[in-house]
Write a structure and sequence with these properties.
With about 475 residues, the chain is an alpha/beta fold. It is about 35% helix and about 20% strand. It has 13 helices and 20 strands.
């Protein structure tokens, strides 16, 4: 059950991540989205009533199409830039309903040891591929056009990023991928993770790009962190790494290196405009200032932080380079942004209602660095044609001044009607135009029991951060 999904390409993509012609490929030439309310920018918010003309993989015009251009009726709809998930773990897509027979985790470290570090060791090539298909399709159907993923599968490292890129390429989803390098499984596995990132960063691709991946300071030796940073520097990219998600990361850095996490990363050369720091919950005011001064981006994951009870990130309000991720809780950025706003306004009364829109606007800017596309996330001539069409009935007037209110209190994932990535209609009427949605689910349902059976045989991971109780 690991072959091509019926309705998709007859064979794997020629180059991992390359966009292959699908049933809607004819639309990639010329297409006009007509009659909708168009949000041309989320930050600053700009709204207009206009047609959007797509030519190839670009926005050709915001205005009336020329005669003969195929039209798609968007009357009564909202047309927006596609959302970006700035931090995902697609490998968690088959974890819904996953069996758990160990004592309940008492803290974040035990959540890793007893759940996620067991799951990642159970993954093999078929389960990695199906996780990407299931997670990628769910992201597209929720209006997410780009996923920045952070992958781990210690028993299937070599070629794992190609498998993910190939699966997402079949769907037509744009992605920025990396492998999570860590010393928790030994030096050989760490070296293999570095090599997988290096190899993937060097390969060509249309819809997929690479970053350098690393787990977190508390599972990275000095030499491994240096190898990660050198690989990133040589490839002209940045490090995608978890930072102070839990107090364990800070305690380990202080016990092992005598400095806080961010100071350790700064000394290693990690901080910079291309770095992507996930979470940043347990950072001090000084560390937050250092991150902002370096121009590094932060992926804030509010639902995951609440679920793991790790605390509230003070960086949710700090600086412009704060985007939103899900940390593996699906690819739905509409819901993530709404719950993120509610959590922010609870912690900080008076939070500006535009908070979720500004956070969503930062995601495309981060992804755009990897693609060399500074206008990703805008609807203007020459920008990449990554768009979503929401069948959102507007019961009250919608303007640039009140879009945030509509977004937080009115829009929902079921409103996503169409999704266009690189000029191609990849979701039409809520369904994939390239693959069979039901067949993906059927293949995943067939493979998942095998994954869970392997998981049941894997004990809790023995790795424990330095400075943590019991070490």
């Amino acid at each position: 059950m690991t072959g091509p999904v019926p309705g998709g390409p007859a064979s794997p993509p020629a180059a991992a991540g390359e966009q292959q012609p699908g049933p809607a490929a004819a639309l990639a030439g010329q297409l006009a989205l007509c009659g909708g309310t168009v949000v041309t920018s989320l930050d600053p918010v700009q709204v207009t009533a206009a047609d959007v003309v797509i030519g190839g993989d670009r926005i050709a015009a915001v205005g009336a199409p020329r005669p003969g251009v195929p039209r798609r009726d968007c009357s009564g709809c909202l047309v927006l830039p596609g959302n970006v998930c700035a931090h995902h773990h697609l490998y968690s897509a088959l974890a819904r309903g996953m069996p758990y027979r160990l004592p309940p985790p008492r803290n974040f470290t035990e959540i890793l040891q007893r759940i996620w570090w067991r799951l990642d060791r159970a993954l093999d090539e078929p389960s990695v591929r199906l996780s990407a298909l299931v997670g990628g399709l769910a992201a597209l159907q929720a209006g997410t056009t780009t996923v920045i993923d952070h992958h781990a599968s210690p028993n299937f490292i070599d070629g794992s990023l190609d498998v993910i890129a190939g699966a997402l390429g079949e769907l037509g989803l744009r992605s920025v991928l990396c492998y999570e390098v860590t010393d928790r499984d030994g030096a050989a596995q760490a070296a293999a993770g570095v090599a997988e990132n290096r190899r993937f960063l060097a390969r060509p691709g249309t819809l997929a790009r690479g970053m350098m991946g690393a787990h977190a300071s508390f599972t990275l030796s000095k030499d491994t962190l240096a190898a990660c940073q050198e690989t990133a520097r040589a490839a002209g990219t940045g490090l995608h790494i978890h930072v102070a998600e839990d107090a364990a990361d800070q305690e380990d850095a202080k016990a092992s290196y005598g400095v806080p996490v961010v100071e350790r990363l700064a000394a290693a050369g990690v901080l910079g405009p291309r770095a992507l720091l996930a979470h940043c919950v347990h950072v001090s005011g000084r560390e937050a200032a250092d991150i902002a001064a370096a121009g590094a981006a932060v992926a804030h994951n509010p639902r995951s932080n609440m679920n793991n009870r790790v605390g509230y990130s003070p960086l949710a309000h700090a600086g412009d380079r704060v985007a939103l991720g899900t940390d593996g809780i699906g690819g739905d950025m509409i819901t993530e942004s709404q719950l993120g706003y509610f959590r922010a306004t609870e912690a900080w009364p008076g939070t500006d209602p535009s908070w979720p829109l500004r956070r969503l606007a930062e995601g495309p800017r981060i992804a755009g660095q990897s693609f060399g596309e500074p206008r990703l996330g805008l609807i203007e001539p020459g920008a990449p044609a990554d768009l979503i069409v929401l069948g959102y009935p507007q019961p009250t007037p919608l303007t640039a001044d009140n879009l945030a209110g509509h977004w937080v209190f009115g829009v929902s994932p079921p409103h996503v009607r169409d999704v266009i990535v690189a000029g191609e209609l990849v979701i039409a009427g809520g369904r994939s135009t390239r693959l069979d949605d039901a067949e993906i689910a059927a293949q995943a349902a067939h493979e998942t029991p095998r994954l869970w059976a392997r998981l049941d045989e894997i004990p809790p991971h023995p790795f424990t951060p330095a400075g943590w109780p019991g070490t």
